[in-house]
């Protein structure tokens, strides 16, 4: 069922080590902050930056799978946000691939916005990443 409303997607990635065991958390919310669904997944060993990019990519993939067309992504990774917007160059080869993937996914939305938010405004996504990290 296609949602015509704007979907707010909060993403966070974490790595214990850097590189080390990594996980992502993604919370899909209404404008009012009601969580509609979420992702909390381990992604193997990765750097923190790879984890942040993976959270964005998985959030985009899930939104597309659910036929969401209008999305606003919120991340507490200023690096990923600025790289995605083209304000910072991506120099790391692994991150270049992630950006290419996300640029392709972005084209499938009618409306796409990405914004940096302070950590305090991204607590649910952070908690979901930690939940995945703590699973044994």
UniProtKB/TrEMBL annotation:
Coiled-coil blocks: none
InterPro entries to which the protein is assigned, alphabetical: RNaseH-like_sf, RNaseH_domain, RNaseH_sf
Residue span(s) of domain RNase H type-1: 3-134
GO molecular function ontology, one term from the record: nucleic acid binding
Pfam families noted in UniProt: RVT_3
Protein's UniProt name: Ribonuclease HI
Species of origin: Leptospira ryugenii
The encoding gene: rnhA
């Amino acid at each position: 069922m296609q949602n015509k409303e704007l979907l707010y997607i909060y993403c966070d990635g974490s790595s214990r080590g850097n590189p080390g065991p990594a996980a992502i958390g993604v919370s899909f919310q209404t404008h009012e902050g009601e969580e509609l669904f979420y992702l909390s997944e381990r992604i193997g060993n990765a750097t923190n930056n790879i984890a942040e990019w993976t959270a964005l990519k998985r959030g985009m993939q899930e939104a597309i799978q659910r036929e969401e067309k209008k999305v606003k992504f919120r991340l507490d990774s200023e690096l990923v946000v600025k790289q995605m917007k083209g304000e910072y160059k991506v120099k790391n080869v692994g991150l270049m691939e992630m950006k290419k993937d996300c640029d392709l996914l972005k084209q499938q939305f009618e409306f796409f916005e990405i914004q940096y938010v302070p950590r305090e405004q991204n607590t649910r996504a952070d908690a979901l990443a930690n939940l995945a990290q703590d699973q044994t």
